[in-house]
Design goal:
By secondary structure, this protein is α+β, with helices and mostly antiparallel strands. Among the domains are: 9-122, Serine Threonine Protein Phosphatase 5, Tetratricopeptide repeat, CATH 1.25.40; 243-390, Serine Threonine Protein Phosphatase 5, Tetratricopeptide repeat, CATH 1.25.40.10; 599-716, Heat Shock Protein 90. Helix content is 76%, strand content 6%. It has 23 helices and 7 strands. The termini are far apart. The model is unreliable at 1-30 and 394-398 (pLDDT under 50).
Length: 722
């Protein structure tokens, strides 16, 4: 507690001034822009230093490098002013920032400077905060004895102060260290003290956190009944706080705990509810959900499902403890394969599990050795820090020694650079001598090769002379035989020419007959398409007349849907009749006419639904177009009827493109989407049955997504281009 009689008048004035600064700082602690405005506008160095410390503390996580710069500037000003209130704040900011930057040595150094400044002005509340920060730093570095020491020092001070919130924070921090030390009883005692204080403060957020800490502690202690009890107490608080993420984590831990006590039916229900949680799938804890479901499935003897789920888990990575996670996956995969009598795979996964377990044991031993080494080195560093603080009191001598050591290191660096340069030059000389030897060897080889080539050339010249004599004799013989052969060929060509003239006349006559026959068939085929189109239009008209005499809305709707299907087929035959190509349909033109007709049929206003298309220039065979057109008719009709109910406007997208030698048909809207409780696979509607039938004919697959509207994609494997 701050006592006026223990300080002189100078420090009292500093306290009053610092109190004014602290009050001013509290107004802007959470406002980065206001702090920056103070830093850039004020001429008061004290205010600037305090604002710099506060801004550095605020930015310690998101902009760590910038926060360190602010802290260093605050340190410079506060040391220049020799104001311990400003120095303790600047040092604490730097200690926290370097801790976040994993610079353990610098962090401890500045925390100790902050402690010295706080003690100099007897600022016990601030001193408790620094002890608490130091305890957290040592806990993160796994130096647990030091963490307990500084937690107890912070706790000793905070018991004398009025803030229950700070006291509860110290109890909770101490409990975390005890739990990591496997001192379960002390951890439970301190967590309960923190919980009691948070309940008095009605701080439900921290009550929930402490209960989760207690649950995990009891679980580590293997007191599973109490662990379940605390998870069950924490879950409704998280729901009340509308903290879905924390509620999900509580359910996950409860499920893992139920697996531990072999209450597999209960854990199976929990993991089944979490496995499809889209928001939690991106969480780093999600692999534990998959593993937990696999373990529960083995426990209730659903071995086939366990194999499937655990195989998925084997493809995942759990960052916190990858070896332990992988070992558990292999262990329970082995159990699952035993359950389905596949002993070969069971043995394989059991061997993998044993390999991982052995490596975990080795890693654990290595980790223990490293922890002991770290503790030893840390004590050495702490001693070095104490020595450095003492050395700082010998200012002139220390500076000269540092300058001399710096000059000495620079000279050593230059000597090293010169030696490296000499070594490089020696290497270059060696390389040059080697290259010269290689070049002389290449020259001797080249001379030898040249001599061999000369001998070869002489031999070839002699052979060439012999060949020239033989060639003259052959030339005379070939000339004689050539004249005879040319005479025979001339007679044969003349004979073939006359036969070709006769054959050409016969082919022309046959081509004329075939061309005439083809034209007649084209006329007949056009006439057939024309008549089919007319007949389909007559059927459409009859259905239209019939609909005028029907008052039942369902029957009337069924007639209209049937009439649209007839129009879809009539449009195909109409295009075939008009175009020169009688075997195929231009998809771009056909789909545009089809969608326009459906918009007109359902009286869709142009400003209500916007149609967007992306149709590739394709000509498909009639056998492909008919089922494709009828499927399009059903999908677009459904979108126009149901997708935009209760909406003033919307967008309908129709795409047809080729993709990896397949056709991709997509009908997408931004409407209300398909209700989650509606299962299309159980639909008995005529439209759905037609689509399923034509999907089989086209050897196609259909995928339906309902997120911000409906997106239906058909991947068609069987289609025929013209």
């Amino acid at each position: 507690m701050f006592l006026l009689k223990n300080i002189n008048y100078k420090y009292f004035l500093l306290f009053i001034f610092s109190f004014y600064i602290s009050s001013y700082h509290q107004c802007f602690a959470q406002d980065e822009r206001q702090l920056l405005k103070i830093i850039t506008s004020t001429k008061n160095d004290s205010l600037k230093a305090d604002a710099l410390s506060s801004l550095g503390y605020i930015l310690r996580e998101e902009k760590n490098d910038q926060a360190i710069l602010y802290g260093l500037k605050a340190k410079e000003i506060s040391e220049k002013l020799n104001n311990n209130y400003l120095k303790e704040s600047a040092y604490r900011t730097l200690g926290v920032c370097y801790d976040f930057n994993d610079d353990f040595t610098s962090s401890i150094l500045f925390f100790r400077k902050a402690i010295a400044s706080s003690k100099a002005i007897n600022d016990v509340a601030f001193l408790a905060n620094i002890y608490h920060d130091l305890a957290i730093t040592y806990r993160y570095k796994n130096l647990l004895d030091s963490s307990v020491f500084y937690n107890l020092k912070a706790l000793e001070i905070r018991k004398q102060l009025p803030s229950k919130e700070d006291l509860a924070m110290s109890y909770n921090g101490l409990g975390l260290v005890y739990r990591r030390m496997n001192d379960w009883d002390n951890a439970i005692e301190t967590f309960n003290k923190a919980n009691h204080l948070y309940e008095q403060l009605k701080d439900e957020d921290n009550v929930c956190n402490v209960m989760m800490n207690l649950a995990l502690t009891y679980r580590n202690k293997k007191d599973y009944t109490k662990a379940v009890d605390y998870y069950q107490k924490a879950a409704p608080i998280a729901l009340k706080l509308n903290d879905k993420k924390r509620h999900t984590v509580i359910k996950l831990n409860a499920g893992l705990l139920l697996n531990d006590v072999k209450r597999y039916n209960e854990s199976y229900e929990i993991f089944n509810s979490l496995i499809d949680d889209k928001e939690f799938k991106s969480n780093e804890e999600y692999p534990l959900v998959v593993l937990g479901l696999g373990i529960a499935a083995v426990g209730i003897q659903k071995y086939e499902q366990a194999v499937s789920v655990l195989t998925d888990a084997s493809k995942m990575k759990y960052k916190k403890s990858p070896l332990e996670f992988s070992g558990a996956v292999n262990q329970y995969l082995s159990d699952a394969y035993i359950g389905i009598n596949n002993y070969n795979l069971a043995l394989k996964y059991y061997k993998d599990y044993r390999v991982i377990a052995d490596s975990q044991y080795t890693e654990s031993n290595t980790k223990n050795v490293n922890e002991l080494s770290t503790k030893y080195k840390t004590k050495e560093k702490e001693q070095e820090i104490i020595l450095l603080n003492k050395d700082n009191q010998l200012k002139g001598l220390s500076i000269k020694e540092k300058q001399q050591s710096l000059l000495l290191s620079q000279l050593q660096n230059k000597q090293n650079e010169q030696s490296i340069s000499l070594l490089n030059k020696e290497g270059e000389l060696k390389d040059l001598s080697i290259k010269e030897k290689q070049q002389s060897l290449l020259l001797s080889n080249a001379n030898l090769t040249q001599q061999q080539q000369q001998v070869t050339i002489l031999n070839k010249e002699n052979s060439l002379k012999d060949l020239q004599i033989k060639e003259k004799k052959r030339t005379i013989l070939f000339n004689t035989l050539g004249l005879i052969f040319i005479s025979v060929i001339a007679i044969g060509v003349l004979y073939l020419y006359r036969n070709k003239q006769k054959t050409s006349k016969q082919l022309e006559e046959k081509n004329t007959i075939i061309s005439h026959s083809l034209k007649e068939k084209e006329v007949m085929l056009k006439e057939i398409h024309h008549r089919v189109k007319n007949n389909l239009q007559v059927i459409s008209s009859l259905l239209n007349l019939q609909s005028k005499n029907i008052s039942d809305e369902k029957a009337l709707q069924a007639l209209n849907e049937g009439r649209n299907r007839v129009k879809t087929m009539a449009l195909i035959h109409q295009n075939l009749y008009r175009d020169d190509n009688l075997m195929g349909i231009d998809l771009q033109e056909y789909i545009e006419k089809l969608t326009q007709g459906l918009f007109a049929s359902y009286n869709i206003q142009p400003n209500k639904i916007t149609l967007k298309t992306n149709i590739e220039k394709l000509e498909l065979d009639v056998d492909t177009v008919i089922p494709l057109g009828l499927i399009l008719n059903e999908l677009i009709s459904n979108a126009l009827k149901y997708a935009f109910e209760g909406r003033d406007a919307g967008i309908l997208q129709v795409d047809l493109i080729t993709q990896n030698n397949k056709l991709l048909l997509r009908v997408k809207d931004n409407g209300v989407g398909i209700p989650k409780d509606k299962d299309l696979s159980k639909s008995a509607s005529m439209g759905y049955k037609l689509i399923q039938s034509f999907l089989q004919k086209l050897n196609a697959t259909m995928n339906i997504e309902s997120d911000n509207g409906t997106n239906i994609e058909l991947l068609i494997n069987k289609y025929k281009l013209v």
